[in-house]
Amino acid sequence: MDIFQIFTLLGALGMFLYGMNLMSSGLQKASGDKLRSFLSAMTSNPFKGVLTGLGITSIVQSSSATTVMVVSFVNAGLLSLGQAIGVIMGANIGTTVTAWLVSWLGFKADISILAVPLMVFGFLFSNSKKNQRQNIGELIVGFCLLFLGLSFMKESVPDLNSTPEVLEFVKTWSSYGFSSILIFLAFGTVLTLVLQSSSATMAITLIMLSMGWIPFNMACAMVLGENIGTTITANIAAAVGNTQAKRAAMSHTIFNVFGVIWALILFKPFLALVGKITEVIFGLPNPAEEGFTVSSPNSDSGVAALYGLSMLHTLFNAINTFILVWFIKYIEKLVVLIIKAPKNKENEVFRLKYISAGPVATPELATEQAFNEIIHFAQISKKGLGYAKAAIEEKNHDKFEELRNKLVKYEEISDRIEYEIAAFLNAVSAGDISEESSKRIKAMYKIIGELESLGDSGEAISRILSRRNIHKKTFDEDTINKINNIIVAVDNAYDVMIDNLIAAHKGTLTEISNAYNAEDRINNLRSNLRDAEIEDIEHNVKNYQTSVYYIDIINQLEQMGDFIINISQYLEIAFAQR
Length: 578
Fold this sequence. Notes:
The chain is mainly α. The chain has 24 helices and no strands.
C-alpha cells in the first residue's frame, strides 16, 4: 500500500464524513420547525422518549448529535434525567439506520453509480432562489458525497490476497480466541474516539469485513467497541455542563457498557442468533457459522456478512433498550450516586443552563437551546426587580447593603449571560443555517441586549438609593407605596414579556397587544406620579432632594418598561405567526 493509496483512503474517509455532515445539515434545515415540534414530544413516558430519540437520530443521522443535544436539554432543565435516559436509548437504536443505509445502498445496490448524476440536481436545487430548495440541494449533495466517499474507500482498500504477509499479520491478530475479541473491541473504541463518528467507524468496519480483512466475529467485536467509543462525545459535551448534564452523559456510558458486557458474556450465542435471523429473513448464508468466509463483496457471502453486521448493530441496541427501559429509575439512582451534587449550589443557579453543555452539534436545533436560555435570562432578570423593590423598602443599613450587593451581582450576571449567549449565537451563525433561523438569531441578539439593559437599570436604582442614604434622606410610606404601584406594573410587564417569549418559542405568538397595554400602564403611572411630585415641589410640600431621588427611580422603572416592550416588538417581527 503506497503513500498515494493511503492519502486516497484518508481523502475518501473525509469525503464520507463531510457528506454525512452536509446531509444532516440539509435535513435539519429542510425539516426546520417540524423537527423542533418533534422535540417537544419528549415526555415523561419512557417509551415515547425512546421513540423520540430514535426518530431524531434517524433524521439527523448522528447519535452523537442527539446525545449532545439531550445533554444540553438536561443541563437546561427542559428534560428530567429519567426522560433523557429514554431519549438516549432511542438514539442508540436510531443510529443503526446508518449501517443499513450503507449496507444496502453502498454495497448491495452501490448507489455511488448514480451519485455523480444526482449531483446535477443537487447543484440546481442549491442555486434556487427558494430557501427550502437550497436546503434540499444541500441534502442531495451530502447524500452523493457520502456514497462517493464510501465507494472511494472501498476502491482504495488493498486486496489482502495480493499481499499475503499483511493477510497473515491480520489473521494473527484474529487467532487469540477471546483475547482477539477484546483486541478488536478496543480497536473499535479507539477508532470511534479518533473519528468522533460511530457511523464512519461502522462504514470502515463494513469495508474491512466485505474485503475479507477480518472475520465476521471480529467485525462484531469492533461494532461493540464503537458503542463504547460513541459515549465519549456526550461526556465531553457534559464536561462543561451542570451536574444533571454530567449524569445524563454518564447514563449513556452505563447503558452502552452494560450492553457490551452482556454481549461479550453471550458472544457466541448472540452471534448465532444474529446469523440465524439474517439467514431466515434474507435467505442468505449464515455469517456466524464456523468456517464462514467472504469470497467477494458482491457475492452472497459478502452480502450476508454486511447484513449480519447491520443486524447485530440493530439487535444489540434494541435488546439493550428492551432490557434497560424498565430500569430507568434505577439507572437514574446509580448515576446520582456516582456523580454527587456540588455542595455549593449558588454557583449553579446562575450559570447558563441550555448552552453551556458543549459544541454546536446541530446548528438548526441550537436555536432551541439559545431561545430557552433567553427565557431563562428573562426569568433571572425579573428576580432582580424583586431585589430592587426590597431595597427601596429596606430601612436597615446592613440589610440594604446586602440587597444592593445582590443588585450589583445581578448586573454582572446579566453582562456575563449576554456575552455567553452572544458567543453561542456567533458559533451558530458561523454554521450553515436556514434563512428563517438567521432572521431569528438577529432578533435574539437584540433581545439579549435589552435584557442586559434591564440588569443595568436594577443596578442604577441601587446607586440612586445609595446616594439617598449618603445624604441621609428617606422615603415616607406614601412615597414607597407610589413606587410600589409602578413596580407592580413593571412586574406585570415582565410576566407579559416572558409569556410572549414562551409563546414565540412554541410558535403560538400572533400579536403583542398585551405588551402594549402593559407599557401604556407604566407610562401613564410614571407621568401621573412625576407630575404630582413636581407639583408638590412647587408648593414646598416635599423635600427637593428626596423628590429628585424618587423621580429618578420612577424614571428608571419606566425605562425598564421600554426595554421590556422592545423585546416583545422584536418577537413580533421575527417569530409571530401570520
